[in-house]
Design a protein that fits this description.
416 residues; alpha/beta; Urease, subunit C, domain 1; TIM Barrel; 2 domains; eight-stranded mixed β-sheet; four-stranded parallel β-sheet; 15 helices; 17 strands; globular; binds zinc ion
Protein backbone atom coordinates (compact mmCIF):
# COMPACT_ATOMS: atom_id res chain seq x y z
CA UNK A 1 0.00 0.00 0.00
CA UNK A 2 1.40 3.40 -1.03
CA UNK A 3 0.62 6.63 0.77
CA UNK A 4 -2.91 7.85 0.32
CA UNK A 5 -3.39 10.54 -2.29
CA UNK A 6 -3.00 14.07 -0.96
CA UNK A 7 -4.77 17.14 -2.33
CA UNK A 8 -4.12 20.64 -0.99
CA UNK A 9 -6.70 23.36 -1.64
CA UNK A 10 -5.03 26.74 -1.15
CA UNK A 11 -6.35 30.30 -0.83
CA UNK A 12 -9.78 29.06 0.16
CA UNK A 13 -12.46 30.95 2.07
CA UNK A 14 -13.54 28.12 4.35
CA UNK A 15 -17.07 27.93 5.72
CA UNK A 16 -16.76 27.18 9.44
CA UNK A 17 -20.14 25.51 9.71
CA UNK A 18 -20.05 25.12 13.50
CA UNK A 19 -19.97 28.93 13.88
CA UNK A 20 -21.66 29.95 10.59
CA UNK A 21 -18.73 32.14 9.48
CA UNK A 22 -16.23 32.31 6.64
CA UNK A 23 -12.46 32.18 7.21
CA UNK A 24 -10.25 33.71 4.52
CA UNK A 25 -6.87 32.46 3.36
CA UNK A 26 -7.09 28.82 4.43
CA UNK A 27 -5.33 25.73 3.14
CA UNK A 28 -7.27 22.47 3.40
CA UNK A 29 -5.33 19.24 3.01
CA UNK A 30 -7.20 16.10 1.99
CA UNK A 31 -5.55 12.74 2.55
CA UNK A 32 -7.30 9.77 1.00
CA UNK A 33 -10.99 9.95 1.91
CA UNK A 34 -10.64 12.37 4.84
CA UNK A 35 -9.66 15.92 5.67
CA UNK A 36 -6.18 15.90 7.21
CA UNK A 37 -5.61 19.59 7.98
CA UNK A 38 -7.27 23.01 7.92
CA UNK A 39 -4.89 25.89 8.54
CA UNK A 40 -4.08 29.55 7.89
CA UNK A 41 -0.41 28.95 8.69
CA UNK A 42 2.17 28.13 6.00
CA UNK A 43 2.13 24.37 5.42
CA UNK A 44 4.33 22.17 3.23
CA UNK A 45 2.25 20.66 0.44
CA UNK A 46 5.07 19.55 -1.92
CA UNK A 47 3.83 15.97 -1.96
CA UNK A 48 0.23 16.96 -2.73
CA UNK A 49 -1.70 17.85 -5.82
CA UNK A 50 -2.36 21.57 -5.36
CA UNK A 51 -5.66 23.28 -6.24
CA UNK A 52 -5.70 27.08 -6.13
CA UNK A 53 -9.15 28.18 -4.94
CA UNK A 54 -8.31 31.82 -5.80
CA UNK A 55 -10.33 33.04 -2.82
CA UNK A 56 -13.48 31.07 -3.61
CA UNK A 57 -15.61 29.79 -0.75
CA UNK A 58 -15.07 26.16 0.25
CA UNK A 59 -18.13 24.49 1.76
CA UNK A 60 -18.69 21.10 3.35
CA UNK A 61 -20.73 18.77 1.13
CA UNK A 62 -24.44 19.50 1.51
CA UNK A 63 -26.85 17.28 3.43
CA UNK A 64 -30.53 16.96 2.51
CA UNK A 65 -32.23 15.45 5.55
CA UNK A 66 -35.55 14.59 3.92
CA UNK A 67 -35.49 12.81 0.57
CA UNK A 68 -37.04 9.71 -0.96
CA UNK A 69 -34.50 8.35 -3.43
CA UNK A 70 -36.91 5.61 -4.54
CA UNK A 71 -39.66 8.12 -5.41
CA UNK A 72 -39.27 7.73 -9.17
CA UNK A 73 -42.91 8.79 -9.54
CA UNK A 74 -45.32 11.04 -7.65
CA UNK A 75 -47.85 8.22 -8.03
CA UNK A 76 -46.90 6.37 -4.87
CA UNK A 77 -49.56 3.67 -5.16
CA UNK A 78 -48.45 2.92 -8.72
CA UNK A 79 -44.83 2.90 -7.64
CA UNK A 80 -45.58 0.27 -4.98
CA UNK A 81 -46.51 -2.15 -7.78
CA UNK A 82 -43.24 -1.72 -9.74
CA UNK A 83 -40.50 -4.36 -9.53
CA UNK A 84 -37.76 -3.54 -7.03
CA UNK A 85 -35.05 -3.90 -9.70
CA UNK A 86 -36.63 -1.16 -11.81
CA UNK A 87 -37.15 1.17 -8.85
CA UNK A 88 -33.55 0.54 -7.77
CA UNK A 89 -32.25 1.57 -11.19
CA UNK A 90 -34.41 4.70 -11.10
CA UNK A 91 -33.12 5.48 -7.59
CA UNK A 92 -29.52 5.34 -8.80
CA UNK A 93 -30.34 7.94 -11.44
CA UNK A 94 -32.08 10.18 -8.87
CA UNK A 95 -29.11 9.88 -6.50
CA UNK A 96 -26.57 10.71 -9.20
CA UNK A 97 -28.44 13.95 -9.92
CA UNK A 98 -28.58 14.84 -6.20
CA UNK A 99 -24.81 14.47 -5.96
CA UNK A 100 -24.34 16.75 -8.96
CA UNK A 101 -26.32 19.41 -7.05
CA UNK A 102 -23.77 19.22 -4.24
CA UNK A 103 -25.61 16.87 -1.88
CA UNK A 104 -22.91 14.44 -0.80
CA UNK A 105 -25.11 12.95 1.95
CA UNK A 106 -28.87 12.45 2.16
CA UNK A 107 -31.16 11.07 4.81
CA UNK A 108 -33.88 8.95 3.29
CA UNK A 109 -37.24 9.52 4.97
CA UNK A 110 -38.67 6.19 3.83
CA UNK A 111 -38.33 3.73 0.99
CA UNK A 112 -34.59 3.25 0.47
CA UNK A 113 -33.20 -0.05 1.69
CA UNK A 114 -29.76 -1.30 2.72
CA UNK A 115 -29.11 -2.55 -0.82
CA UNK A 116 -29.12 1.01 -2.16
CA UNK A 117 -26.95 2.21 0.71
CA UNK A 118 -24.50 -0.63 0.07
CA UNK A 119 -24.44 -0.11 -3.71
CA UNK A 120 -23.49 3.56 -3.23
CA UNK A 121 -20.87 2.68 -0.60
CA UNK A 122 -19.30 0.12 -2.96
CA UNK A 123 -19.17 2.67 -5.74
CA UNK A 124 -21.54 0.80 -8.06
CA UNK A 125 -22.94 4.21 -8.96
CA UNK A 126 -22.24 7.79 -7.97
CA UNK A 127 -24.59 9.26 -5.40
CA UNK A 128 -24.86 10.77 -1.94
CA UNK A 129 -24.07 8.51 1.00
CA UNK A 130 -27.37 7.30 2.37
CA UNK A 131 -28.88 7.17 5.83
CA UNK A 132 -31.89 4.90 5.51
CA UNK A 133 -35.15 4.51 7.43
CA UNK A 134 -36.35 1.42 5.56
CA UNK A 135 -40.13 1.31 5.23
CA UNK A 136 -42.06 4.11 6.93
CA UNK A 137 -44.24 2.76 9.74
CA UNK A 138 -47.91 3.66 9.50
CA UNK A 139 -51.17 2.75 11.16
CA UNK A 140 -54.00 1.32 9.08
CA UNK A 141 -55.38 4.23 7.07
CA UNK A 142 -52.37 6.34 8.01
CA UNK A 143 -50.08 8.43 5.83
CA UNK A 144 -48.22 5.57 4.19
CA UNK A 145 -51.17 3.22 3.87
CA UNK A 146 -51.48 3.69 0.11
CA UNK A 147 -54.40 1.35 -0.49
CA UNK A 148 -57.32 2.93 -2.28
CA UNK A 149 -60.65 2.52 -0.51
CA UNK A 150 -62.11 -0.83 -1.46
CA UNK A 151 -58.80 -2.69 -1.42
CA UNK A 152 -58.92 -5.03 1.55
CA UNK A 153 -55.78 -7.15 1.70
CA UNK A 154 -52.48 -5.77 2.93
CA UNK A 155 -49.98 -7.50 0.69
CA UNK A 156 -50.39 -5.75 -2.65
CA UNK A 157 -49.62 -2.24 -1.39
CA UNK A 158 -47.51 -3.01 1.65
CA UNK A 159 -43.78 -2.66 2.14
CA UNK A 160 -43.19 -6.36 1.45
CA UNK A 161 -44.13 -5.90 -2.20
CA UNK A 162 -41.43 -3.68 -3.65
CA UNK A 163 -39.04 -0.81 -3.05
CA UNK A 164 -41.48 2.11 -3.14
CA UNK A 165 -42.89 4.31 -0.42
CA UNK A 166 -45.55 1.93 0.83
CA UNK A 167 -45.49 1.69 4.59
CA UNK A 168 -45.04 -1.15 7.00
CA UNK A 169 -48.58 -1.14 8.36
CA UNK A 170 -48.66 -1.82 12.08
CA UNK A 171 -51.44 -1.38 14.64
CA UNK A 172 -51.06 -1.70 18.40
CA UNK A 173 -47.84 -1.37 20.37
CA UNK A 174 -46.78 -4.97 19.71
CA UNK A 175 -47.10 -4.68 15.95
CA UNK A 176 -45.34 -1.33 16.03
CA UNK A 177 -42.47 -2.89 17.97
CA UNK A 178 -42.23 -5.69 15.45
CA UNK A 179 -42.28 -3.24 12.52
CA UNK A 180 -39.51 -1.14 14.10
CA UNK A 181 -37.43 -4.25 14.83
CA UNK A 182 -37.93 -5.36 11.24
CA UNK A 183 -36.48 -2.08 9.94
CA UNK A 184 -33.61 -2.32 12.42
CA UNK A 185 -32.93 -5.92 11.34
CA UNK A 186 -32.62 -4.57 7.82
CA UNK A 187 -30.08 -1.96 8.80
CA UNK A 188 -32.13 1.20 9.37
CA UNK A 189 -30.06 4.22 10.41
CA UNK A 190 -33.20 5.90 11.77
CA UNK A 191 -36.87 4.96 12.10
CA UNK A 192 -39.64 6.81 10.28
CA UNK A 193 -43.09 6.84 11.79
CA UNK A 194 -46.25 8.53 10.56
CA UNK A 195 -47.64 10.58 13.46
CA UNK A 196 -50.29 12.57 11.58
CA UNK A 197 -52.17 13.07 8.35
CA UNK A 198 -50.50 13.86 5.04
CA UNK A 199 -51.08 15.31 1.62
CA UNK A 200 -50.19 12.46 -0.72
CA UNK A 201 -52.30 9.93 1.19
CA UNK A 202 -55.88 9.54 0.03
CA UNK A 203 -57.78 8.73 3.21
CA UNK A 204 -56.49 10.69 6.20
CA UNK A 205 -57.35 14.20 7.44
CA UNK A 206 -54.35 16.53 7.41
CA UNK A 207 -54.97 17.90 10.91
CA UNK A 208 -55.51 14.45 12.39
CA UNK A 209 -53.13 12.69 14.72
CA UNK A 210 -52.01 9.14 14.01
CA UNK A 211 -51.00 6.44 16.46
CA UNK A 212 -51.89 6.32 20.14
CA UNK A 213 -49.30 7.69 22.56
CA UNK A 214 -48.42 4.16 23.66
CA UNK A 215 -47.70 3.15 20.07
CA UNK A 216 -45.47 6.19 19.49
CA UNK A 217 -43.62 5.52 22.73
CA UNK A 218 -43.15 1.86 21.76
CA UNK A 219 -41.58 2.88 18.45
CA UNK A 220 -39.20 5.31 20.15
CA UNK A 221 -38.29 2.78 22.84
CA UNK A 222 -37.38 0.13 20.26
CA UNK A 223 -35.36 2.58 18.18
CA UNK A 224 -33.60 3.85 21.28
CA UNK A 225 -32.77 0.30 22.39
CA UNK A 226 -30.81 -0.13 19.16
CA UNK A 227 -29.06 3.24 19.46
CA UNK A 228 -31.17 4.71 16.69
CA UNK A 229 -33.57 7.68 16.79
CA UNK A 230 -37.07 8.21 15.39
CA UNK A 231 -38.23 10.75 12.84
CA UNK A 232 -41.95 11.50 12.59
CA UNK A 233 -44.09 12.88 9.81
CA UNK A 234 -46.39 15.46 11.47
CA UNK A 235 -48.11 18.69 10.42
CA UNK A 236 -50.46 19.87 13.14
CA UNK A 237 -49.45 21.38 16.47
CA UNK A 238 -51.08 18.48 18.28
CA UNK A 239 -49.44 15.77 16.17
CA UNK A 240 -46.03 17.40 16.62
CA UNK A 241 -46.48 17.84 20.39
CA UNK A 242 -47.52 14.20 20.89
CA UNK A 243 -44.60 12.89 18.81
CA UNK A 244 -42.06 15.03 20.63
CA UNK A 245 -43.44 14.08 24.04
CA UNK A 246 -43.14 10.41 23.03
CA UNK A 247 -39.42 11.00 22.39
CA UNK A 248 -39.27 11.59 18.63
CA UNK A 249 -36.08 13.50 17.74
CA UNK A 250 -36.87 14.76 14.26
CA UNK A 251 -40.14 16.40 13.19
CA UNK A 252 -40.71 16.24 9.44
CA UNK A 253 -42.65 19.09 7.75
CA UNK A 254 -44.26 20.65 10.87
CA UNK A 255 -45.98 23.36 8.83
CA UNK A 256 -48.89 23.92 11.22
CA UNK A 257 -46.95 24.38 14.47
CA UNK A 258 -47.52 27.37 16.75
CA UNK A 259 -45.16 29.10 19.20
CA UNK A 260 -46.21 26.86 22.10
CA UNK A 261 -45.39 23.75 20.04
CA UNK A 262 -42.02 25.18 19.09
CA UNK A 263 -41.31 25.66 22.80
CA UNK A 264 -42.19 22.01 23.49
CA UNK A 265 -39.81 20.99 20.70
CA UNK A 266 -37.05 23.13 22.16
CA UNK A 267 -37.58 21.68 25.64
CA UNK A 268 -37.30 18.11 24.30
CA UNK A 269 -34.29 18.81 22.08
CA UNK A 270 -36.20 18.02 18.88
CA UNK A 271 -35.19 19.20 15.39
CA UNK A 272 -37.50 20.60 12.72
CA UNK A 273 -37.02 19.47 9.10
CA UNK A 274 -39.23 21.63 6.88
CA UNK A 275 -39.66 20.66 3.22
CA UNK A 276 -40.77 23.75 1.31
CA UNK A 277 -39.50 22.67 -2.12
CA UNK A 278 -42.07 19.92 -2.48
CA UNK A 279 -45.07 22.20 -1.79
CA UNK A 280 -43.80 24.75 -4.28
CA UNK A 281 -43.31 22.05 -6.91
CA UNK A 282 -46.69 20.41 -6.26
CA UNK A 283 -48.52 23.74 -6.29
CA UNK A 284 -46.95 24.60 -9.65
CA UNK A 285 -47.82 21.23 -11.16
CA UNK A 286 -51.41 21.61 -9.97
CA UNK A 287 -53.98 19.18 -11.25
CA UNK A 288 -51.69 17.93 -14.04
CA UNK A 289 -50.39 15.21 -11.73
CA UNK A 290 -53.86 13.75 -11.42
CA UNK A 291 -54.10 14.38 -7.69
CA UNK A 292 -57.60 14.49 -6.29
CA UNK A 293 -59.40 17.67 -5.24
CA UNK A 294 -59.08 16.58 -1.60
CA UNK A 295 -55.33 16.13 -1.88
CA UNK A 296 -54.88 19.53 -3.54
CA UNK A 297 -57.02 21.18 -0.85
CA UNK A 298 -54.68 19.72 1.80
CA UNK A 299 -51.70 21.06 -0.13
CA UNK A 300 -53.11 24.57 -0.10
CA UNK A 301 -53.44 24.47 3.71
CA UNK A 302 -49.78 23.65 4.35
CA UNK A 303 -48.08 25.50 1.50
CA UNK A 304 -48.66 28.96 3.00
CA UNK A 305 -47.64 27.95 6.50
CA UNK A 306 -44.24 26.41 5.76
CA UNK A 307 -42.17 29.59 5.98
CA UNK A 308 -44.08 30.73 9.08
CA UNK A 309 -43.20 27.45 10.84
CA UNK A 310 -39.50 28.13 10.17
CA UNK A 311 -39.84 31.62 11.68
CA UNK A 312 -41.58 30.23 14.79
CA UNK A 313 -38.97 27.50 15.25
CA UNK A 314 -36.06 29.94 14.84
CA UNK A 315 -37.61 32.35 17.34
CA UNK A 316 -37.76 29.61 19.98
CA UNK A 317 -34.26 28.30 19.23
CA UNK A 318 -35.34 24.99 17.69
CA UNK A 319 -32.62 23.66 15.38
CA UNK A 320 -33.92 23.76 11.80
CA UNK A 321 -32.49 21.39 9.18
CA UNK A 322 -32.55 21.42 5.38
CA UNK A 323 -35.03 19.00 3.72
CA UNK A 324 -36.95 18.81 0.44
CA UNK A 325 -39.21 15.69 0.15
CA UNK A 326 -39.54 15.77 -3.66
CA UNK A 327 -41.16 13.10 -5.81
CA UNK A 328 -40.70 11.95 -9.41
CA UNK A 329 -39.58 14.48 -12.01
CA UNK A 330 -39.90 17.24 -9.36
CA UNK A 331 -36.55 16.11 -7.87
CA UNK A 332 -35.04 18.70 -10.23
CA UNK A 333 -36.39 21.36 -7.79
CA UNK A 334 -34.17 20.19 -4.91
CA UNK A 335 -31.92 23.27 -4.87
CA UNK A 336 -34.95 25.58 -4.91
CA UNK A 337 -35.24 24.97 -1.16
CA UNK A 338 -32.36 27.46 -0.69
CA UNK A 339 -34.29 30.14 -2.58
CA UNK A 340 -37.56 29.51 -0.71
CA UNK A 341 -35.99 29.60 2.77
CA UNK A 342 -34.08 32.80 2.03
CA UNK A 343 -37.29 34.65 2.93
CA UNK A 344 -36.86 33.64 6.59
CA UNK A 345 -33.24 32.60 7.11
CA UNK A 346 -29.97 34.53 6.56
CA UNK A 347 -27.61 32.82 4.05
CA UNK A 348 -24.90 31.53 6.40
CA UNK A 349 -27.45 30.16 8.85
CA UNK A 350 -29.23 28.47 5.94
CA UNK A 351 -25.93 26.94 4.86
CA UNK A 352 -25.40 25.76 8.42
CA UNK A 353 -28.81 24.03 8.34
CA UNK A 354 -27.68 21.99 5.32
CA UNK A 355 -24.30 21.10 6.85
CA UNK A 356 -23.50 21.25 10.56
CA UNK A 357 -27.03 21.20 12.01
CA UNK A 358 -27.97 18.37 9.64
CA UNK A 359 -24.90 16.42 10.75
CA UNK A 360 -25.90 16.91 14.39
CA UNK A 361 -29.34 15.55 13.64
CA UNK A 362 -27.76 12.52 11.94
CA UNK A 363 -25.41 12.12 14.93
CA UNK A 364 -22.49 12.59 12.56
CA UNK A 365 -21.00 15.65 14.24
CA UNK A 366 -17.32 15.97 13.25
CA UNK A 367 -17.64 13.41 10.46
CA UNK A 368 -20.03 15.17 8.09
CA UNK A 369 -21.11 18.74 7.38
CA UNK A 370 -17.89 20.29 8.65
CA UNK A 371 -14.46 21.09 7.24
CA UNK A 372 -12.38 19.77 10.08
CA UNK A 373 -9.56 17.21 10.44
CA UNK A 374 -10.93 13.67 10.48
CA UNK A 375 -14.17 14.50 8.65
CA UNK A 376 -15.08 12.96 5.31
CA UNK A 377 -13.52 14.99 2.49
CA UNK A 378 -16.86 16.06 1.02
CA UNK A 379 -16.15 19.53 -0.37
CA UNK A 380 -17.66 22.13 -2.69
CA UNK A 381 -15.73 25.06 -4.08
CA UNK A 382 -18.34 27.62 -5.09
CA UNK A 383 -18.58 30.84 -7.08
CA UNK A 384 -19.96 34.00 -5.45
CA UNK A 385 -20.26 35.09 -1.84
CA UNK A 386 -22.31 32.77 0.42
CA UNK A 387 -22.50 35.51 3.05
CA UNK A 388 -24.63 37.56 0.62
CA UNK A 389 -26.84 34.89 -0.94
CA UNK A 390 -26.87 31.20 -1.86
CA UNK A 391 -27.66 31.69 -5.54
CA UNK A 392 -24.66 29.49 -6.40
CA UNK A 393 -26.34 26.53 -4.70
CA UNK A 394 -29.73 27.27 -6.26
CA UNK A 395 -27.98 26.98 -9.68
CA UNK A 396 -25.46 24.27 -8.91
CA UNK A 397 -24.33 23.52 -12.50
CA UNK A 398 -22.76 26.98 -12.73
CA UNK A 399 -22.31 27.69 -9.03
CA UNK A 400 -20.30 24.65 -7.90
CA UNK A 401 -16.83 24.96 -9.43
CA UNK A 402 -15.32 21.88 -7.80
CA UNK A 403 -17.13 18.91 -6.31
CA UNK A 404 -15.43 16.30 -4.14
CA UNK A 405 -16.87 13.35 -2.23
CA UNK A 406 -14.75 11.24 0.13
CA UNK A 407 -11.59 12.68 -1.44
CA UNK A 408 -12.68 11.83 -4.98
CA UNK A 409 -12.93 14.75 -7.37
CA UNK A 410 -16.19 14.41 -9.29
CA UNK A 411 -16.11 17.87 -10.92
CA UNK A 412 -12.60 19.28 -11.35
CA UNK A 413 -11.94 23.00 -11.17
CA UNK A 414 -11.73 24.45 -14.68
CA UNK A 415 -9.01 27.01 -15.40
CA UNK A 416 -10.34 30.57 -15.20
ZN1 LIG B 1 -41.36 12.58 2.91
Amino acid sequence: MGRPQRIAIRHARVFDSAHARLLDGCTVVVEGERIAAVTREPIAVDDAEVVDAEGRALLPGLIDAHVHVVAASHDLAGLALQPASLVGAEASRIMRAMLQRGFTTVRDAGGADFGLREAQARGLYEGPRLFIAGAPISQTGGHSDLRPRGVRGRDLYCACAGLGLAGAIADGADEVRRAVREQLRNGADQIKIMAGGGISSPNDPLEGTQYALGELAAAVEEADAAGVYAMAHAYSARAVTRAVQAGVRSIEHGNLIDAATARVMKRHGAFLVPTLATYAALAAEGARLGWSEAMRAKLAVVADRGIEAIRLARAEGVPVVFGTDLLGHMHAQQSNEFTLRAAAVPPLELLQSATHTAAQLLRQDGRLGQITPGAWADLLLVEGDPARDLGMLARPEQGIALLMQAGRVLRPLAAR
